[in-house]
Specification:
A: 324 residues, 12 helices, 12% strand, B: alpha/beta, Rossmann fold, seven-stranded parallel β-sheet, 11 helices, 19% strand
Chain lengths: 324, 330
């Protein structure tokens, strides 16, 4: 009973916060949130996920080959596997709430429904920001928005990585995929900095790199979709990259091998992120309703918007950095 | 409408007693709008049909073009359905090249010489090639990259190119290309269904591409649909929905044996060169990356809706898989 009251109270407070809305919304810490899953469940889920992707359970499958597996197939058209996501969700929630103690600002700027493009800075040698943005909107947005984040091609050259990212809701970044998602009224998260963003060294942290050739702006104009600038703070400190090795990386099909304080010196353990405090801010939507579809071909206009969007995100980052 | 009523269609089918042909011909035989079916194959007819006349022409023989021309003229054929393509890779790749790539060239030439009005060809979505930088849904306008080194696909790609080349030089040449994705169903036999007949299927470790299927009934329907309505253009024929390889294995109770790519590639190349298996290493690309197609043009422009979704089609195949193996054992 008291718990119910507590949640009601929380809801009420949230509603007040929400009613202020928009830019006035305060930075809201989420680290007090309880995670439903126990540590054993989280580790169990991870182990199950690893076993599933390595396909190492075939010996046990052999024994029960003739039994009917009744778990439903729940896979969307881009390969998001709800069953698989549930296995690793506990771990990512632990990272989000307890490890990174993420604070959120301006989540009401993301509309409750309809297609939307969230454009964010990209950072951290191992990109965790996509899944964190997804989790923020899934868990903290009032209407629990299920967005897809677009990732670079090179992930799909690698074994395991592409499959894993696909199953937890990533989509290969290309115009066809983005337009298909937007046509279906889905939200997408885009990192126009691409590899330039995640491969920054620690000394260059929080300097937003070039925004490609303005593909995001053209996508928004063509499809009449608002862009929501977003800033993610903290990922740079999670993986402070001192050097990057490019030569040997080619052998493994990677764009670079990061060298941090812990990696590769501590082996795979060094791949664990450092527990920095994360902040995610969603800015006010940029709308392109007044433009015509043909304006997408106007390179001067597109690069103007592109540069101003980059500036907006850089400002948001600077403000957040000053506030912490 | 009147033209269709008065003038009944006379259809020639190459590769007539392959899977699609042997199901399509009985359908055409019952339909009053068709007055003649000319079957061209090297196999003799496995069934009887009222309107059927059979000719034994080997497309790989040098005289095939003139033979075909004579037949098409004599029978006053107005539509030719070109189905002489293989569903399984075979070791004799030179022969396949002669049949599929050069054979298509000969068929087109014979068609134009004997005033065949319409040309319908079967192809596969494998001609797009499986690449990590493919969009999840390829449209008809996407570049066909094929799969270099995998002649099974390259020959089909060359056949398509021969048609496109000819069409660009002859404006009045009406053609239809139906590019089917992986066909599954209770009876069809192709590269993918025979792979899944095993209890243990080697898979590329760390890759789990999304696959797309079309039911065999839908494939035969789409050919009939195109012939009935005289639709032209190129179409990707695929059902809605995708399903990852791992889920197919789970549904079918098949045990995937994960092998790292470099090991699997070398073993398969070795076995293929020794003619011990039916799969060349090029097929592994299709077990690594996506090559799914967008069926919007099929639905909107052609107006054809597949009856089975990808999942229903593969479930239908997996349901009959065990019975199929019994048949093979006898």
């Amino acid at each position: 009973m008291s718990e119910e009251l507590k949640t009601n109270e929380e809801k009420f407070i949230n509603e007040i916060i929400a009613s202020i809305g928009g830019i006035g919304e305060e930075l809201r810490d989420t680290s007090h949130r309880l995670i439903k899953k126990s540590p054993a469940d989280i580790l169990g889920g991870l182990a199950k996920a690893a076993r599933d992707i390595l396909t190492l359970d075939y010996f046990s499958r052999d024994k029960r080959r003739n039994e009917i597996d009744v778990e439903p197939v729940n896979i969307d058209e881009f390969g998001f596997n709800a069953r698989y996501f549930e296995m690793v969700r506990g771990f990512y929630e632990f990272l989000f709430y307890k490890y990174f103690r993420t604070a959120i600002k301006g989540i009401k700027n993301v509309p409750d429904s309809g297609s939307v493009i969230i454009v964010s800075n990209h950072s951290g040698a191992l990109p965790l920001d996509g899944i964190m943005l997804r989790l923020a909107l899934l868990n903290e947005h009032p209407s629990s928005r299920d967005i897809r984040f677009l990732i670079e091609d090179y992930i799909y050259h690698l074994p395991f990585a592409g499959t894993f990212m696909n199953r937890i809701g990533a989509v290969r970044a290309c115009r066809e995929n983005a337009e298909r998602l937007l046509r279906k009224g889905k939200g997408i998260a885009v990192f126009p900095e691409g590899i330039q963003g995640i491969s920054k060294l620690y000394k260059d942290r929080y300097k937003v790199q070039r925004f490609g050739r303005g593909g995001v702006i053209r996508l928004a104009i063509r499809n009449r979709v608002p862009i929501i600038p977003a800033a993610v703070i903290g990922a740079e400190e999670s993986y402070p990259m001192l050097f990057k090795i490019k030569r040997f990386a080619m052998m493994f099909g990677l764009p670079y091998i990061p060298v941090t304080y812990t990696f590769p010196f501590l082996g795979p353990l060094g791949l664990l992120p450092l527990p920095s405090k994360w902040m995610i801010q969603f800015g006010e939507p940029v709308r392109f309703d007044k433009l015509k579809r043909e304006d997408a071909e106007d390179t001067a206009l597109v690069s103007g918007y592109n540069e101003s969007l980059r500036g907006t995100i850089q400002n948001m980052i600077n403000e957040l950095l000053a506030s912490r | 409408m009147r033209r269709i009523k008065n003038q009944k269609k006379r259809v020639a089918v190459t590769g007539a007693f392959g899977f699609i042909g042997s199901h399509l011909i009985p359908l055409l035989d019952c339909d009053d709008r068709y007055s003649k079916i000319v079957a061209i194959d090297i196999k003799s007819p496995p069934f009887a049909a009222k309107k059927l006349s059979y000719y034994n022409v080997d497309l790989t023989s040098p005289s095939a073009e003139t033979e075909l021309m004579k037949i098409l003229k004599k029978e006053k054929v107005d539509t030719l359905v070109h189905l002489a393509f293989l569903s399984n890779p075979v070791a004799n790749t030179e022969w396949v090249h002669e049949l599929e790539s050069v054979g298509t060239f000969k068929v087109i030439n014979a068609c134009s010489a004997s005033k065949v009005k319409r040309f319908v060809m079967w192809s596969s979505t494998m001609v797009y090639g499986a690449y990590p930088d493919n969009p999840n849904y390829l449209t008809e306008s996407h570049k066909k990259r094929g799969c270099p080194g995998f002649s099974f696909v390259q020959d089909k790609l060359e056949a398509e190119k021969a048609v496109m080349d000819f069409a660009s030089k002859n404006d009045d040449f009406e053609y239809t290309i139906l590019r089917t994705c992986t066909i599954v169903g209770p009876t069809v036999d192709n590269i993918f269904t025979s792979l899944l007949l095993r209890n243990y299927v080697p898979v590329v470790m760390g890759y789990d591409p999304l696959m797309q299927f079309i039911h065999e009934v839908d494939v035969i329907d789409v050919f009939k649909f195109v012939l009935d309505r005289e639709i032209k253009g190129e179409f990707n024929v695929a059902s809605d929905g995708v399903i990852p390889v791992s889920e197919i294995m789970r549904l079918g109770g098949i045990i995937p044996v994960p092998v790292p790519y470099f090991a699997l590639k070398n073993v398969i190349s070795f076995l293929w060169n020794g003619q011990l298996i039916r799969y060349p290493a090029g097929f592994l690309n299709y077990m690594k990356y996506v090559f799914n197609v967008d069926n919007e043009k099929l639905r909107k422009d052609m107006g054809f809706t597949p009856k089975y979704s990808s999942l229903e089609a593969i479930k239908n195949y997996l349901g009959t898989r065990r019975l199929r193996k019994i048949e093979l054992a006898n």
